[in-house]
Amino acid sequence: MKSGTRALGLADSYKSDAETSTVAGAVVRADRVLDGLAFGHVTVGGTDSTDRLTELVHRVDRPDIQYVFISGIAPAWYNIVDLPQFANALSCPVISVSFEDSDGLEPALRDAFDGAALTKRLSRYERQPPRWPIEVNDEQVFVRAIGLDASESARVVRTFTPEGGRPEPLRVAHTAARAGDTLSQTI
């Protein structure tokens, strides 16, 4: 992959006592050069993440982005991203990366919600593509991808992860989201 290939990483900084969670979008080249930042918000415990992330990507307005990375699928306390809908709104592949093995979100969703709120989240969760493990630099991450097969998504994740187990676009986005969240708390 060329060193100038760009990916957009999306990650949030969630605080349980806040109404919204800060989301950062970081455009990072394959050679680890940061090439842009944007910020937005999603509702803590809400259902607006797909729409808010789509708006953020469109606001970034970078036709040179070839991949979009998302940190997990449930930012801001189970505000589940509808990956198929999200990917359909974009013109590039979407890769969701999580960092812990689990039996899935369904038990946690059932503990946290009931009625229509649970039904809506379970419906979104069930539409997600399957998740599979990828070994990266002696660490394991878990990936869901739309627009790439398993081997291609592993190649992209490894290319954007020069060290450790966190792809650089997500590492930078998470750092920026935390900083943006801290700033918004002090103003």
TrEMBL record:
InterPro entries reported for this sequence: Endo_dU (IPR002802)
Protein's recorded name: UPF0215 protein ACFQL7_01395
Species annotation: Halocatena marina
Similarity annotation: Belongs to the UPF0215 family.
Domain of life the protein comes from: Archaea
